[in-house]
Amino acid sequence: MDVVLEATDSFIADYIYAWAYPARTVPYDHPQFTNATEQGFSSWQYKPACPYFDIPPSKYAYMSAWDRDNIYRQSITLFLITWIFGFLLYFIFATLSYIFIFDKKTVYHPKYLKNQMWLEIKQANASMPGIAMLTVPFWLLEVNGYTRLYDTPADGPGLWYDILQFPFFILFTDASIYLIHRWLHLPSVYKHLHKPHHKWIMPTPYASHAFHPLDGWAQGLPYHLYPILFPLNKFASVALFVFVNFWTIMIHDGEYVADSAVINGAACHTVHHLYFNYNYGQYTTFWDRLGRSYREPDKELFEKEKKMSEAQWKKQTAEMERILKEVEGEDDRTYEGAGTKKNN
């Protein structure tokens, strides 16, 4: 994140902070400025965020009372990066998934909600500022050197680790999210934090980030804990952050490609949304199998003619309504075409 922060400072933030909170007057003998009436003197010294390239700072980097190392400035900038970049990543790729991958017949499912797509987008947008704010402390640890992120293979454990860090990261986060997700399904927690995400029985890609803020933050914790506990290349960290968001969209896209006993794909996650108490894992089915919460998706889900059949929908609806009574009690959702609330 320090590379991202440096780029943001160089091209955007330096100019904004120099204008919004200018520094004290420059001394006459400062070599970078030609007269004492210019604002901008700072004792801050530029250090490149990585050894591969640097972005030489303009004079505006020295013209704010809050230099780049100021924790308040860093907090504000990191919050905005997380919020804005997170929104763009979510909205652009969820939209592409909706247009090119999502099966539009899903909207005719009896458990598809009225105005569901817009409700998902609204929920996601309402949650993102809160998630971003709660994530800032972890970014501050990263950019100030309090994690085990490293720059080059020479700085890490070795070339072997540069390769194995990816499966290690997946293993750690998959196990951690499984435990967090099961905790979120405890009755006392579910009704306050996780129920907003389970409002979507038949989700679209826009449901991928439609969480309660604390829910989204909790499920993101393992991604930030990993580089605190274990070495991780900083560029791999950014790539994995993007991958995680892609994966979250993919398992909500309703295109059941991965008929796998190992991969926790869209079909497995659809089972979770339909039947609540199964398939808590993120990437693999391993922890669900170990925790006896794995449920294999119906084979009909992988047959295009059958997965959207009326018979399949009736079967799903009957079991979903039975389990929903156990988990939530009264169903307060408003389904598409129902006109009124469907109470079970």
Q: Cα distance, first to last residue?
A: 47 Å
Query: Strand tally, please?
Result: 2
Give the averaged pLDDT, no decimals.
Answer: 89
Discrete helix count: 11
Task: Look at the helices and sheets and give the structural class.
Answer: mainly alpha
**Low-pLDDT ranges:** 339-344
The percentage of residues in β strands lies in: under 5%
Q: C-alpha Rg, in Å?
A: 24 Å
Explain the layout of strands and helices.
Layout: H1 2-20, H2 71-100, H3 116-143, E1 149-150, H4 159-184, H5 187-194, H6 213-229, E2 232-233, H7 234-250, H8 266-275, H9 286-290, H10 304-307, H11 310-327
Parallel strand pairs: 1-2
Helix pairs in contact: 1-2, 2-3, 2-7, 3-6, 4-6
Question: What would you say this structure looks like, in words?
Answer:
With 344 residues, the chain is mainly α. Helix content is 53%, strand content 1%. It contains eleven helices and two strands; from the N terminus they run αααβαααβααααα. A two-stranded parallel ribbon has the order 1-2. The longest helix is centred in the N-terminal third of the chain and has 30 residues, at 71-100. It is elongated, with a radius of gyration of 24 Å. The model is unreliable at 339-344 (pLDDT under 50).
